[in-house]
UniProtKB/TrEMBL annotation:
Gene Ontology BP terms: carbohydrate metabolic process
Matches recorded under SMART domains: Aamy
Pfam families: Alpha-amylase, CBM26, CHB_HEX_C_1
Name of this chain's protein: Alpha amylase, catalytic region
GO molecular-function term, one example from the UniProt record: metal ion binding
Lineage, top ranks: Bacteria, Bacillati, Bacillota, Bacilli, Bacillales
Organism: Paenibacillus terrae (strain HPL-003)
Length: 948
C-alpha cells in the first residue's frame, strides 16, 4: 500500500496530494494544466503526454474494437454534457480510419450540434473510426477516447453505448423469487426494465393487456399459480408478455443435505482422524461420494456412506497423515446435491528464514488467459489501451511462470491481495468489497486460486497472501457492511454495482460521482448508521493516535478493529485462505491498526489455524532513517514484534468498550521510547550462537522499513543494524530495496530503484547474506522500469510506471531441476535469466540456500574490520547443524578472535586454514563478496559479473 512520509507539515501536504492521485479520490483533478495543442498532421497517431491533465471528473471505459459492417459513410457520435460544463461543446478528432479523412484541425476542435436535454452530436463524414476528445473549449475535457462503431452515445456513466442510453428500453418483466417449485407460500415481486414502467398482470391464465390489473404491490402465492404480466414504458412502448409459473407443494423435498466434520478443517502438527455426518430433512436414501486428491467428486467416485440420513448418518473414520483436501458430493433421494471441501494441513511449516521471496502484482505479471482481461474503471483516465488493461495478468499466467521464479532460486511468492475489489483503480487488490471472495478477474478455467496454491506447492514454492484488516474500499463490504455488490452478469463498471441498502439517498443515482462518494462516506463514517463497523474519525494526523482511527485515503475507509464483530469476520475469512493452503500472510497497513488488537485477536487466531510456524509479517510504513517513527514507538516498526508487558481492560473480555479503552491506553503507554524492550536474539555472544528468547515475541514479524528506507546504498542500509536490539528478533525481518510503493529515501523514493547496476548488486549482496529474509519486487532482476515513477495512480499509463506489465520479458519456457538450477530456457525468458542482475540473484540464492548461517544465523561485527563485513553463526544440535560464516562485501576485511580451522569461500572455493584466530579476506570490485564458511564447501553455483 502507498504510505506517506511522516514529519513536517509541508511533507504532509505533498503526501495528501499523492494520496489523492494514487487512490483516485472522486472529484480531485489530476493537474491544473489544461490541454491546449494544435494538430496539423493528419497522420498523428497519439496525443502528447500532456493529455494526462484531465480537468473534468468525467472519465471513460474503452469499448471493444468492432469491425464496421454498415454502409454508412460517416461516424456519428453523441455526447451528454456534464452539468459543470458550458454549452459550447466541441469535438477534437484525429487518427482517422481511413487516413484520407481530414482531422478536426486546431484545438479545441469543432462545435457539436445541440440535440436538446444536454445531448450533442457530430458526424465525421467518411470515417469508420477515430480517436477523439469532447471538451467545452474552456478547460473541461474528457480523456482520450476512441470509436470504431458507426454510431456511439457517450454518457455520464463513462461508457459508450450503441443506442441512446436515456431512451427507455422496451419493458421486460422479471419476478422474484424465481418461478419454480416451493414447499411454502411465496411473496412474489414483479419488476420491469425501467423504474417507471407500468406493469399489468393476470392470475387466471389469460393474456394481460393494459386493461388488466395494475401491479402496485407484491402478490401472495399460497397455492400453485401462474402470473402473466406485461410492461409499458413512459413513451407507450409495450413489451412482450411474460409468464411465471409457481408450484406450491407442501410435501416437496427441496432442501439439500448437510455434511459436517467431527474435526474442523485446518492445521494440525500431527496426523488426525476425521469422520463426517450427513443429515437430510426427508427419510430417503442419501449417498455421499468423496475424493482425497483434490479432484471434483462425481457419482463414479468412492462412496463414503449411504442410507437414511433423516436422523444423521456418520461415515467411517479417515486417517489424514499429510496435507489433504477431501471433497464431497452428497445427493439425497430427491436429487438435491451438496458439494463441500475440507482441507487439513498436517505437519510443521519449515522455518521461513530458509526461504527467499519473489513479490508480484498478479494483474501486472503475466497474462495466461487474455479472455479475462478487463479495464479498471479509470483506465481511460490513465490512458491504458485495450492492449494493456490494468487487469491483465492472472492466476493462470502466474502458474505458467512458477518455473521462472524457481529458476531464479526463489522458494516463496508473495502476491497482492486476491479478494474481490471495487474502485476506480483497483487492479492492485487493496480496495476490497468482499474479503471472503476471490476476485474473478484473476481466475479462469482450471486456474482458480486453489489451483495456483496447489501448483505452487507441487513445485516446492510457498504462497504468501497479502491481506488487509485496516480498511475496505468506499463501496462497503458485501458481508461486513453491505452497501453494494457486484453483478457477475454485467460489465464491471461503477454503475453496474447493485445497491444492497436502502439507506443511501433516494436520488443517489442522479448525484455526481463526488456527491455519491460523499453519500457513501456519510453512511460508513456516521455513528448512527455504521454499527461501529468503521471508525468515524474525519481527520488524520500522521503523528498522533488518529493515524489508527482516521481514513488514509479515499478508497481506504478505516475499519473499526476495536469492534469484536469486525475482528471475527476478518479472522474467519482469512482462516479460510489458510485452510486452502496459504503458507504465510503479509499484512498491509499495520501501523494503522493498534498492536493490542493484533496481539489479542489476529495473531493468535491465525497461528492456531495455520500452526505455530505460520509466518506473518507486516508492513509498518515508517519512512525514517531511524528505528523510531517520530520518536513514537506505538507506530514504529519494531514495536509490533513484541507482546505487551502489562495488562489492559480488554484482556479476557470481548466487547467494544473495553477494547477501545485498551487501545487508547496502550498508545498512551508507548508515546515515548523510554522503557521499550530490547533483545539480543539477533546477536552472537562473541562467536557463539545462543538459543533465542521468544517468550515476549508477538508472533508477527515485519518488513524492515528503516533498512529499506536507507537502501540507497548498502553502507547506509548496513548502518541501520544499530536499531536491531529493539526488534524481538531482527533475523525474521523481511528486507527489500524497492517495492510496489517505494524505493529508498533519495534513490529517489518515488521511482523504481535508479541506482547504478553495481549499486544494485552490492545491495543484493547485503540482503542475501546479512540478517533477514530477502524479497525482490518483480522485474528487479533485469532492472525493469529503472527510474520510472512507481505509482502515479490513474494519471499515467501503467506501461510508463513501475507497475508496468512484465509478461513480454518472460515469454518462453524453462526446465527447472531445483531452486536456481535449470536448463533449456527459451525466448525472452532466457534473456531475462541471463541478465547480469538475474544471474547475480540466482547465485546469491544458491549461496544462501547452501549456508544455514546466512539463513538463520545470529551476527556480530565484534573484532571485524571492513566497511561491509560481519560474521554469522547458526547452531542446531538436534539436527547436527553448526554453520559459521565470515562475510565481506565489496572490499577486504580482517576477522580476529575466531575459531581455528579450515574456512572455504562458498563463492570461489578458496580455502584458508586459521591457526591463530585471525583471517584476512580479500575482495575487490563493487558488488563482489566473499563468504568463508568453517568446514564449508566452495564453488557454489556459477561466478558472474559481480560475484567472482
Amino acid at each position: 500500500m502507498l504510505r506517506k512520509k511522516t514529519g513536517s507539515f509541508i511533507s504532509w501536504l505533498i503526501i495528501v496530494s499523492l494520496c489523492f492521485n494514487f487512490f483516485g479520490l472522486p472529484g480531485v483533478a489530476s493537474s491544473n494544466n489544461n490541454y491546449k495543442a494544435t494538430y496539423t498532421n493528419s497522420t498523428a497517431t497519439a496525443l502528447p503526454s500532456t493529455t494526462a491533465s484531465i480537468m473534468s471528473t468525467v472519465t471513460a471505459t474503452y469499448a471493444p474494437t468492432t469491425t464496421l459492417h454498415s454502409t454508412q459513410t460517416g461516424l456519428t457520435v453523441h455526447f451528454k454534457k456534464p452539468s459543470s460544463w458550458n454549452s459550447a461543446i466541441r469535438i477534437h478528432y484525429w487518427n482517422l480510419n481511413p487516413a484520407t479523412v481530414p482531422i478536426s484541425g486546431a484545438w479545441p476542435g469543432i462545435l457539436m450540434k445541440s440535440d436538446g436535454n444536454d445531448w450533442y452530436s457530430y458526424t465525421i463524414a467518411g470515417a469508420m473510426g477515430s480517436s477523439l476528445i469532447f471538451n467545452d473549449g474552456s478547460g473541461k475535457q474528457t480523456a482520450d477516447l476512441s470509436r470504431s462503431v458507426k454510431e456511439g452515445w457517450y454518457y455520464t456513466d463513462n461508457t459508450w453505448y450503441d443506442a441512446n442510453p436515456e431512451m427507455p428500453k422496451i419493458p421486460v418483466i422479471s419476478a422474484s423469487p424465481v418461478p419454480k417449485t416451493y414447499d411454502s407460500s411465496q411473496t412474489v415481486t414483479l419488476s420491469s426494465t425501467n423504474s417507471d414502467d407500468k406493469i399489468y398482470y393476470t392470475l387466471d391464465g389469460s393474456t394481460p393487456t393494459t386493461s388488466s390489473t395494475l401491479y402496485t404491490s407484491p402478490i401472495q402465492v399460497a397455492s400453485s399459480l401462474t402470473i402473466n404480466a406485461l410492461g409499458v414504458n413512459s413513451i407507450g412502448q409495450t413489451g412482450n408478455a411474460s409468464s411465471f409459473a409457481y408450484v406450491i407443494d407442501l410435501n416437496a423435498d427441496l432442501q439439500a443435505p448437510t455434511i459436517t466434520a467431527n474435526l474442523p478443517a485446518g492445521h494440525s502438527d500431527s496426523s488426525v482422524t476425521v469422520s463426517f455426518t450427513i443429515k437430510d430433512n426427508k427419510a430417503a436414501t442419501t449417498k455421499a461420494y468423496y475424493t482425497e486428491d483434490g479432484t471434483e467428486p462425481t457419482i463414479n467416485s468412492k462412496v463414503y456412506v449411504l442410507g437414511n440420513a433423516l436422523a444423521g448418518l456418520t461415515g467411517p473414520s479417515i486417517l489424514i497423515s499429510k496435507t489433504t483436501t477431501l471433497k464431497f458430493l452428497v445427493i439425497d433421494g430427491a436429487g438435491n446435491q451438496t458439494k463441500q471441501s475440507f482441507v487439513y494441513n498436517i505437519g510443521n511449516n519449515s522455518d521461513f528464514r530458509e526461504d527467499t521471496i519473489y513479490f508480484v502484482i498478479t494483474s501486472r505479471f503475466y497474462d495466461g488467459d487474455p479472455s479475462n482481461n478487463v479495464h479498471a474503471w479509470d483506465d481511460a483516465k490513465a490512458r491504458n489501451p485495450d492492449s494493456d488493461p490494468a487487469w491483465r495478468g492472472d492466476f493462470k499466467g502466474l502458474i505458467q511462470k512458477l518455473d521462472y521464479i524457481k529458476a531464479l532460486g526463489f522458494s516463496a511468492i508473495w502476491i497482492t491481495p486476491v479478494v474481490q475489489n471495487a474502485s476506480g483503480y483497483d487492479y492492485h487488490g487493496y480496495h476490497a468489497i468482499n474479503f471472503s471472495k476471490v476476485d474473478p478477474r484473476y481466475e479462469s478455467a482450471g486456474a482458480s486460486y486453489q489451483d495456483l496454491i496447489n501448483a505452487a506447492h507441487a513445485k516446492g514454492l510457498k504462497v504468501i497472501q497479502d491481506i488487509v484488516v485496516n480498511h475496505t474500499g468506499n463501496f462497503g463490504e458485501e458481508n461486513l457492511y453491505p452497501m453494494f455488490k457486484k453483478d457477475p452478469a454485467k460489465p464491471d463498471t461503477a454503475n453496474n454495482l447493485v445497491k444492497t441498502t436502502d439507506k443511501l439517498p433516494s436520488n443517489y443515482d442522479t448525484l455526481t460521482p463526488n456527491q455519491q462518494y460523499q453519500a457513501r462516506l456519510d453512511l460508513m463514517k456516521n455513528e448512527g448508521t455504521n454499527n461501529n463497523i468503521y471508525h468515524t474519525e474525519k481527520s488524520l494526523s500522521w503523528e498522533s493516535y488518529t493515524v489508527q482511527t482516521g481514513q488514509i485515503a479515499g478508497d481506504c475507509v478505516d475499519l473499526n478493529t476495536e469492534n469484536p464483530a469486525v475482528n471475527k469476520y476478518l479472522i474467519d475469512t482469512y482462516n479460510h485462505y489458510i485452510d486452502m493452503g496459504v503458507d504465510a500472510f503479509r499484512v498491509d497497513t499495520v501501523k494503522h491498526v493498534s498492536r493490542y488488537i493484533f496481539n489479542k485477536y489476529y495473531i493468535p487466531a491465525w497461528k492456531t489455524r495455520g500452526g505455530s510456524d505460520f509466518y506473518i509479517f507486516g508492513e509498518v510504513a515508517t519512512r525514517y532513517r531511524d528505528v523510531w517513527n517520530s520518536g513514537i514507538p506505538a507506530i514504529s516498526t519494531p514495536f509490533y514484534t513484541w507482546k505487551s508487558s502489562k495488562s489492559y481492560p480488554g484482556d479476557k473480555k470481548n466487547d467494544y468498550a473495553s477494547n477501545k479503552a485498551s487501545v487508547e491506553q496502550e498508545w498512551a503507554d508507548n508515546s515515548t521510547t523510554a522503557g521499550q524492550p530490547t533483545s539480543n536474539n539477533a546477536l552472537l555472544n562473541g562467536n557463539t550462537y545462543h538459543t533465542p528468547d521468544y517468550s515476549m515475541k508477538s508472533g508477527m514479524d515485519v518488513i524492515d522499513f528503516p533498512m529499506h528506507w536507507a537502501f540507497k546504498t548498502a553502507h547506509e542500509a548496513f548502518n541501520m543494524r544499530s536499531g536491531d536490539q529493539y526488534y524481538n528478533d531482527a533475523t525474521w525481518n523481511v528486507t527489500y530495496v524497492d517495492s510496489h510503493d517505494y524505493a529508498p529515501d533519495q534513490a529517489p523514493e518515488n521511482q523504481r530503484f535508479a541506482g547504478t547496476q553495481d549499486t544494485w548488486a552490492e545491495n543484493l549482496d547485503l540482503m542475501f547474506t546479512f540478517r533477514g529474509i530477502p524479497a525482490i519486487f518483480y522485474g528487479s532482476e533485469i532492472e525493469f522500469q529503472k527510474g520510472a515513477v512507481i505509482d502515479p495512480g490513474p494519471n499515467a499509463p501503467l506501461s510508463k510506471t513501475g507497475r508496468a506489465y512484465y509478461g513480454d520479458h518472460i515469454e518462453g519456457n524453462v526446465t527447472v531441476q531445483d531452486y536456481g538450477k535449470y536448463t533449456n530456457a527459451t525466448g525472452t525468458l532466457a534473456e531475462s535469466l541471463n541478465h547480469p542482475l538475474a544471474k547475480h540473484i540466482r547465485q546469491l540464492n544458491l549461496l544462501r540456500r547452501a549456508v544455514p548461517a546466512l539463513q538463520k544465523g545470529q551476527y556480530s561485527t565484534e573484532n571485524v574490520s571492513g566497511d561491509l563485513a560481519f560474521k554469522r553463526r547458526y547452531t542446531d544440535a538436534d539436527k547436527g547443524i553448526d554453520s559459521f560464516a565470515l562475510v565481506t562485501i565489496s572490499g577486504n576485511a580482517t576477522f580476529t578472535g575466531i575459531p581455528n580451522g579450515t574456512y572455504v569461500d562458498a563463492v570461489t572455493g578458496d580455502s584458508k586454514t586459521v591457526t591463530d584466530g585471525k583471517i584476512t579476506l580479500t575482495c575487490s570490485g563493487k558488488g563482489n563478496a566473499r563468504v568463508y564458511v568453517l568446514n564449508g564447501r566452495g564453488g557454489i553455483g556459477e561466478t558472474g559479473t559481480y560475484l567472482k
